Each structure stands twice: as structure tokens, then as C-alpha cells.
Amino acid sequence: MPFSETLKSIVESVEGGLGAIIMADDGIAIDEYFLDGAGMDLNLMAVEYASLLKEVKRTADVLKTGMLEELAVNTGQSRVIVRIINDELFIALILGRDGNYGKGRYLLRREVSGLRERLS
Amino acid sequence: MPFSETLKSIVESVEGGLGAIIMADDGIAIDEYFLDGAGMDLNLMAVEYASLLKEVKRTADVLKTGMLEELAVNTGQSRVIVRIINDELFIALILGRDGNYGKGRYLLRREVSGLRERLS
Questions:
Q1: Which residues of A touch B (CB under 8 A)?
Q2: Which residue numbers delimit the Roadblock/LAMTOR2 domain (chains A, B) (predicted)?
């Protein structure tokens, strides 16, 4: 699992970090790191976010506002930040409700170029 | 257009603000304020984001992570922050690529409770 150290470092560097996952557009998880007891169904989350991302990409295409770079979804219990790695892969960071959203976004942005090189 | 002053105040208070719109889930714009020359097709944007929001709500339901509160989509040319007002209405703030995302999120969060009262 060559990326788990990077994922672990991201999750443990952000307050409220619960887990991070690199996935393909078809909902297959490439690598993941989740804290014990994060209480999430990872497979379901992978499939659901991959499916959602297709819709968001389609919306960006229709609106002609450039390539999708980042998607963030905040709900009553979680904050999910998704950052595009390349045409096929993305990384998702899951934070608890009071997680440090700004730092999470910063860390994903910082790590994505390195991931892009290693995954190309 | 009773909400246009609030929308104008949000757009003009954030660096890179291009426009803001209150919409219903069915893609009908309730009120809007856009800078001249923002270069966006508002009707298309309303319909597309309303449609996308349904998918995001569905995802939040499936994952059982609480009610959707906020969605943000960053693309090559724009940053769109959507905040839920109530079951039927949401507000979207559109910023240029270098817009102040943190301040935009803060302003929407601050204004939504007032909008909720006026719209209920």
C-alpha cells in the first residue's frame, strides 16, 4: 500500500481528521488510511463519492467554468474534501464536524502534485 | 426583489465576488445579484446547481452523515459556495478563481439564519 504513509500523515496532521482515501472514478479504492473507530462504511463512501464526482464534473463541463479541482461537502456530522489528482483518480479527506477545514484543504492541495507524479 | 440588498452586500463584501443567488430546489431563481459582466448564464447555473444539489443530498442521505449544510465546487475559473437555507431553498455565491473563499463561506454562514427567518 504505497500511499498509506502519505494518507496517514495528512489525517494525523489535521485536527478532527478521520480518514483519507485515494479512489478511482469507478469507486475502487486505491489506498486508504482511516482511524480506528471512524465509524464510516468506506466502500459505500468510495462508491457514492465517485458517483457524485461524475455529476459535479458534468456540471462544470456544462457551465464551462474550467476543470474541476476541488469539491467540499459539509453535513451535520462530517466534512468531506475531495481533490482531483488526475482524470481518473481523486483523493478524499474526511473530517469530523469540528475538523479544521482550512488546514485540510491546504494539506490536500499541497500533497496532490506529489501524488500526481507518483501515480502517472 | 426583497433579498437583493442582502445578496449585493455579500457579493460586494468579498474579494472576487461575482454574484449571489437564492434558488429553489427546482432551479427557479428567487432573487439574485450579479455584477455587470460576470459573464455567466444565470438560468443555466441555477438549473445545474439545483440538479447537482439533489445528488449531493442523496449522497448525504445514503452515507447517513447528517443533513447537508454546505457544498463548495472549485474549478479552473470559479469558486461556487452553496449553503442550504431550508428544505426547499439554497443560496449560492460565485467567486472568481482568486476570490476570498474563506470570507465567502463566513458571510454565507452568517447571513443564512436571517434569510431562513425571512423566508419561512
A1: 40-41, 44-45, 48-49, 51-52, 55-56, 59-60, 62-63, 65-78, 97, 102
A2: 4-95
Name the β-bridge partners of A82.
Answer: A71, A92
Domain count, chain B: 1
- Which chain B residues have any C-beta within 8 angstroms of a chain A C-beta? 40-41, 44-45, 48-49, 51-52, 55-56, 59-60, 62-63, 65-78, 97, 102
Domain housing B61? 4-119
pLDDT band at A38 (very low <50, low <70, confident <90, very high): low
pLDDT exceeds cutoff 90 at B21:
yes
**Arithmetic mean of pLDDT, A59-75:** 92
| CATH code at position B16 | 3.30.450.30
Among B14, B24, B9, which residue's Cα sits nearest to residue B84?
B24
Residue B40, H or E segment: none
Section A18-46 average pLDDT: 84
**What is the value of ipTM here, to two decimals?**
0.90
Query: According to the model, what pLDDT value does residue A1 have?
Result: 46
Do B71 and A74 count as a contact with CB atoms less than 8 A apart?
A: yes
Residues of B whose CB is below 8 A from A74? 68-71
Cα-Cα-Cα-Cα dihedral sign, residues B60, B65, B68, B72: negative
- What was the pLDDT predicted at B83? 96
Q: A107: which residues sit within 8 A by CB, 6+ positions away? A: A10, A13, A14, A93
Give the end-to-end CA distance of chain A in Å, rounded to a whole number: 16
